[in-house]
Amino acid sequence: MACSAAANASALTFEQVWQKVVEHHPLITAANNRFEAAEFNRQSAGLRPNPRLVFEAENFYGSGEYERAGQAETAFMAEQTFERGGKREARSRLSSHNKTGQQLESRRQLRLLRQEVRRRFNQVLLAQERLRLTETQQEIATNNTQTVARLHEAGAATSDDLARARVQLQSIELALTRARQQQLSASQQLAAQWGDMFNAEVIVAAGPLLFMREGLTVDQVLAPLDIGIDQKIAEQKIRAQQAEVNLEKANATVDVTLAAGVRRFSATDEYAFTVGASVPLQIFNNNQADIDSAYAQMRAAQSDADYLKRKISAEVLAAFRRWQQANQALSTLEVEILPAAKNVLSATRKAYERGSYSYLQVLDAQNSLLQAERQRLELRADAADAMTILERFIEPLAPIDSLSVTSVAPQEITP
């Protein structure tokens, strides 16, 4: 009892495990760094072009009267390019959309991480259940061996029965060793999630394996997908492509470069102010191809959003049906099959002690119960895996959303 109390005191819940992962997982740091990089890109996109300082020297050497450097003309000029067509505003909007998209993608990655941590945590819970089941089987096999040995001494059981009982006990003891190894392996894989790569201790997990509420309907499962993180990312990609279209349209407007400076005439040591202006001529390229490409990318993003919605809906529906089927099978197994198998084993063992049944019939009844217990464990594992998938898509998951640097403002998709 004291050992059990100590184990319960040191047991970890899923939320405790999740917090340990959040504190140590490099994905969290990477997400923050990417968001910071997106913010710097946004700041850079809003900057004006730098001015240029130009130095020119004309007639500084040649033939005839230009053999002397005294005939040179030198000029110092400053040039500034003025962007037209709203390029700077278009770049800023695009970078802002990219920043929001990076934030949403970080949230999606965190949800995937939580799903993986939940799966590893469930493996520890399943390993604990498997170990308890094997320990129960060992206890039954030990009682059977003692019963057969007692009957053998009284001449009511054969040597073959005793040998079978001992072989069965040895087989279950091997299974018990294997179950303990699997529990340690599951603990090590869970500890690796928070960076403990050399964990050598068994982690005791506390909490329900089937953690989601029952009674969910198809509509309740599908409704959150319209505002889910994957749908938000798809919509944000469309917005970003729309901003890309606007930027390419702005790039089609030519910029004007103005220059102003002073020119010195070495021959007369006189000075004069000079000004200039230049614009590119759109003879060969008016940026229409880039505009058409941006439109095509926007249409592709819209198609990707439609495909993603169908794909996620199919994945969520498949997980929901798996959960339903596993629940139904579990209900039948726990209400009807398992109690019947236990009653059959008890009756068969009593009949064997009276000499009415052979020990082979006891083994058959015990194997039937063992098979039912294993089916129950498999069904619980299948239901838990389906719940893990559903949790990623439909649960609010406040522990993940609270990790975001800033909140994402809702934006409308313009036609």
What's the short version?
The protein is an alpha+beta fold and 415 residues long. The chain contains ten helices and four strands.
Q: How are the SSEs placed, and which strands pair?
A:
Elements (H helix, E strand, L loop, with lengths): L1 H8 L4 H11 L1 H20 L6 E7 L14 E10 L4 H67 L5 H34 L25 H5 L6 H23 L4 E10 L4 E9 L9 H67 L4 H36 L3 H4 L14
Antiparallel strand pairs: 1-2, 2-3, 3-4
Helix pairs in contact: 2-4, 3-4, 4-5, 4-7, 4-9, 7-8, 8-9
Description:
There is one protein chain. The protein is α+β, with helices and mostly antiparallel strands. It is 66% helix and 9% strand. The chain contains ten helices and four strands; from the N terminus they run αααββααααββααα. It has helices at 2-9, 14-24, 26-45, 87-153, 159-192, 218-222, 229-251, 288-354, 359-394, 398-401; strands at 52-58, 73-82, 256-265, 270-278. It has a four-stranded antiparallel β-sheet, with no helix packed on it. A hairpin with a 4-residue loop joins β3 and β4. The longest helix is centred in the N-terminal third of the chain and has 67 residues, at 87-153. Mean pLDDT is 88; it is low at 1-6 and 399-415.
| Number of E-type strands | 4
Low-confidence stretches: 1-6, 399-415
Q: Determine the N-to-C terminus distance.
A: 68 Å
| Structural class assignment | alpha+beta
Mean pLDDT: 88
**Percentage of β-strand residues:** 5-15%
Largest sheet: 4 strands, antiparallel
Give, in spatial order, the strands making up the sheet with the most strands.
1-2-3-4
**Radius of gyration from CA coordinates:** 37 Å
The number of helical segments is 10
Task: Report the helical percentage.
Answer: 55-70%
Gross geometry: elongated
SSE run: HHHEEHHHHEEHHH
